[in-house]
Amino acid sequence: MESTLPRPVVSPAKGMVIGYWIFTALLCLQMGFTAYAQLSLPQVSQAFTELGYPGYFRVELSWFKIAAVLALLVPQVPARLKEWAYCGFALTLVSAIIAHFSSGQGFYEASFAIGTSVLWAFSYFFWRKCEAAKVGA
Fold first, then answer.
1. Residue 10 — φ and ψ, nearest 5°?
2. Rounded distance, CA 49 to CA 23, Å?
3. Domain ranges within the chain, ordered by starting residue
4. Single pTM value for the model
5. In this structure, what are the phi and psi dihedrals at residue 67, rounded to the nearest 5 degrees?
6. Tens of pLDDT, residues 20-51
7. 84 Cβ partners below 8 Å, 6+ apart?
8. Would you say 66 and 90 are in contact if contact means Cβ atoms under 8 Å apart?
């Protein structure tokens, strides 16, 4: 027997917005957690020292991550500022991957940054699609 209820239709534009918010929320949760960890967990501070970074850089990076998370999550933020937030995250993630490999660590240690880079790529992809279509991302 067939249902008489109308089937919900998800337009491609709405699908882009949904994809954007899913991947952006996951990216922001991940980056927000790493910012928190860098500010408060001693083992993360130790890991930064082992990678050769000075202590002030860890704190500075954490606050920039928090600012970028806010820039991506607030819908009224200008597109140029969101672009800078994505750029900052890209530089951070690529630098983290390079730091892990160049310090002699392997794929396991870099996998967190690699996984976050995948979230970044999908979030950025959907954001650019939404911007091109101007559908409210």
1. -105, 115
2. 31
3. 14-133
4. 0.85
5. -65, -40
6. 999 999 999 999 999 999 999 999 899 888 88
7. 68, 71
8. no
pLDDT at 37: 94
Query: Which stretches of 1-128 are assigned E, i.e. beta strand?
Result: none
**47 to each of 14, 80, 103, 114, how far by Cα in Å?**
41, 33, 11, 17
Distance CA 118, CA 129 (A): 17
All residue ranges of the chain with pLDDT < 70 are 1-3, 5, 7-12, 135-137
In this structure, what DSSP letter does residue 7 have? P
Average pLDDT, the chain: 89
Question: 36-58 burial by CB neighbour count: b if 16+ within 10 A, else e?
Answer: eebbeeeebbebbeebeeeeeeb
136: left (phi over 0), alpha (psi -120 to 50) or beta: left
Residue found under tokens 């970044």: 120
Our CA dihedral for 71, 74, 22, 5, rounded to 10 degrees, sits at: -160
Q: What is the CA radius of gyration of the chain?
A: 18
Q: How many helices (H) and strands (E) does the chain have?
A: 5, 0
